[in-house]
UniProtKB/TrEMBL annotation:
UniProt key word Zinc: no
One cellular component (GO) term of this entry: phenylalanine-tRNA ligase complex
Family: Belongs to the phenylalanyl-tRNA synthetase beta subunit family. Type 1 subfamily.
NCBIfam families with a match to the protein in the record: pheT_bact (TIGR00472)
Domain of life where this protein originates: Bacteria
Organism expressing this protein natively: Rothia terrae
Name by which UniProt lists this protein: Phenylalanine--tRNA ligase beta subunit
Amino acid sequence: MRIPLSWLREYAPVPADATAEDVMADLVKVGFEEEDVHRPSDELSGPIVVGQVLSMEPETHSNGKTVNWCQVRVVPEGQTQTLTGKGIEESGVQGIICGAHNFVPGDKVVVTLPGAVLPGGFAITARKTYGHKSAGMIASVKELGIGDDHGGILVLSALGLDPEIGTDAMELLGLYDQAAEVNVTPDRGYGFSIRGIAREYCHATGNSFDDFVLELAAKAPAANAAGFPVKVDDSAPIHGNSGCTRFVTRKVTGFDASAPVPTWMSSRLRLAGVRSISLAVDISNYVMLETGQPLHFYDADKLDGSITVRRASAGEKLTTLDEKERELHAEDLLITDASGPIGLAGVMGGASTEVSESTSSILIEAARFDEVSIARTARRHKLTSEASKRFERGVDPQIQAAAAQRAVDLLVELGGATVEEGVTDFGDAFEPTVVELPNAYTASRVGINYTPEQITQTLTEIGASVEAGESAYRVTVPSWRPDIIDKEDLTEEVARLVGYDQIPSTLPVAPPGRGYTVEQTVRRRVLNSLAAAGSVEVFAYPFVSADDNNLWASASANETVESIKLANPIAENTGWMRRSLLPGLTTVLKRNTARGFRNLAIFETGYVFIPKAELGVGSIPGLGQKPADDVLEAINAGLPEQPRYIAGLFAGTDTEATPGVTPRAYDWQDAVDAVRLISSVTGVEIVISRGTHQAFHPGRTAALSLADGTHLGYAGELHPKLLATTDMPERTAAYELNFSALIEAKTGVIEATGIFGYPATNQDVALIVDADIPASDIKAALAEGAGDLLEDIRVFDDYRGTGIEEGKKSVAFTLRFRADDRTLTADEASAAREAAVAVTAERFGATQR
C-alpha cells in the first residue's frame, strides 16, 4: 500500500516536516513492514515553472518535420526576473522550439528551463536547434514522469487550472508530495486504505483517531422505495456463505464527463500507484483507496432493466473492461441485467456498461462480496485487480453506504452532477463478533502484567467496545477487523499497540550437565571430518521419481521399491519421497558439471523415507488445543520410518594439473576411503567386502556392514552404462550408508592410541590364493592367526599375470608387530607371521609366493 503523505495528513496528525521514512518508522511499530519510498522530487529538480505561450510560428524543415518556434513568458509581465540559470533570458520571455501542436497562443503550460533535470537524468540546457537557440522545453506529462501521454504537451487549462505565470509547477502538480509504501499482510486488509493506515498511524504515535467514515455514514440516506431494483440470487454459495452480503446503490444524473480531474486528486492517485484516467474512474479509485471499499460505476443509460447478482450459467461469456472475452465458470459470481452478465462481481466490470466520455448518468455500486468466492474467481481468470485484493482480504461490512456517499459528494462537487433520491441497500443486519478475554490471559501469553486500563484503552483504540467483567473482558470486535476472532487475536493487539519493545527479553539458562546428544556429536564430527578431507556439503530436494527410488534403493535390477507418493508434488516427475540420497546428489553433480566444474567431491546427510504397512491417520485433530496422548501416538505410528543416511560423490581428479603434478582421477578407492574415515571418526568398525548393486560398477563395488552383519550400504564406482545414459562424468565414484544404524552401533567413546615405548617390526607376506577370494577375508584370517602382537595389517599389492597360475592371484600384505613391554626380536615377529599364514593356508589353501 502506497500512502501519499498529503492524503494521510487529512486524517492523521502527521507533522509538516515528516518524511516518508519517518512515517514508515512509526508504522513499523504497529507491525507494518517497510517497502519503499516514492518521491517525484528525487528525479525532478531545477526551475520548472508555469509559462504562457505568447506566440508560435510553425516552421517546416528539410527533414519534413514541422516544429513551432515559440515565445513563452515565464515571469509575470512587469516583474523583475527572479529565475537564474545559464540560458534564461532576463526579459522573462524564452524562445523555445516545440514539436507538439496541441496548444495555442495564450495557453499556460509547464516550462522546464535551463538547469532543470527531468526523470532519467535528462538535463535541460540552452542549445541551438532548427536554426534557433532554444532555451528550455515545454513539457508533456511523460517528460515530467507523471503520465504516459507523449503525444502533446501538458496544457494546464485542460486541467481547469489558471495559475499565475512563474508559479512553481512542481508544487502546482503535487510533485513535492511523497509516498511511503508498506507491506500489508493478508490478515490486515483494512490496511489497504488511507482510513486504515491513518488509524494505525495514530496508534503508533499515541494520537486519537477521528473516523471520517462515521460522519459519511451519518450523512448517507436510508434505503427507500425509489432505489434502483437489485436482486441477489446466490443459488450456489461457496462454503455455505452467500457470495453477496450487502449491495448499496446510489444514482447521479447530469454528470459532466469532460470535467477535468483536479491536480490534487490525480497527483495522489499517481503517488498511490494508480493511473489517472477520467474524472468518474478517478473518483471511484480515490474513494476505494481512501475508505478501503471498492466501488463500481455503471453508465446508467446502458443498463437494461434491474440488476441481479447470481452465479454464472453454463456457456456464459463476459467481455471485461480490459477488452478480453472470458469463459465463465459456474462458481463465478456475476452482476447481471436483462442483457446478461455485465461484470465479474468484486473483480472487474464489463465493457458493455462502462462509463465513457458521453456518460451523464452514473449508477454507483458499493457492495460486499464473500472473500473466498472473489479469491477463487480472481485466480481462476488470472485477473487480480485492486478491488479483488481488498475483497478477498475482507471489506468492512458497514462501510458501503458511507463509501457511496463519499462518491456522490465528489461527483457533485467535481462533475456538477445531481443526486437522485433513490437508495438501494440490500443485505442482512451486521452481527459483530464478541470475544471473551480472560483477565489474566494476556499476561500469561505475553509475559507482561498489563493493567486493566492498558487492556481496555488499547482495545478501545482499535474500535472495539469493552465490558470489564469479574473474570473476563467482553470485547465486541469492530466491523473492519474480521481477522479478530478469538482471545489470542485480542492478546496480539494489546501486545502490538502497547509495544513489542515492552516485552522483556530473557535468555534461558541452559540446564547444567547438558550439551550435544551422542547423535549430534557424532554427526558434527563426521561432517567436519569429510569437509576437512576436501568434500563439500550440499543439500538436495527430497523429492525424486519412482524410477530413481527403484534404481538406487534396490541392489537388484527390475525390482520395485515401496515409496511414499506426494499428494501435491511440485513437479509430476518428482512426486515421490526419496529412499536414497544419491538421486539428489547426482542432480547436484550434473548441474555443477554443466556449469563448468570438473573436479567435484560432494556429500550430503539427510533423511530417507521408508513406508510402513500402515501410513497416515484417519483424522487430523483441530487447531487450538493439544491432542491427547493416544491421538499423538496414532499420528506418530502412521509416520514413515525416517533413518538418516550419509552419501557422497567423486568426479574428475583429486587435484588440478600444475607443473610437476599429475592429477589422479577419482575412483572406487576414494569412495572406500571416505567410508573408512567415517568409521574412524565414529569409532564403529565398518566391514568392507565385495558387493554388487545395479547402479554400481560390477567389479568395483564394496558392500558396507557392521561387524554383526547389519547391512549399511555401498561404495565404489558407478556403472559405466548408467553414467553414459544420465550424462554424468564417465568415471564417478559414490558411497552411501545408513548413518542412523552406524550411530546406534556406537557403544562408547573413542580411545586415543597411546604413545609407543618400544619400536615396531614390519613383516611382509605375499600369498597365492584363488582369484575370487576377497582380500578382506584373507586379511581377517591373517589378523586372527597373528595374535595379540599384531598392531596393523595393510594390503599393498594385488598381482595377476606372468608367473601366477590362471585363476589365481598374489595378494601382498604388510604386518606390523609391536609389544608394549619389550622390543620384539625378529624371531618373535616371524613366528607371529607364520602363525598368521598357517590360518590362511588352512582356510583358503593359501601358499606363500
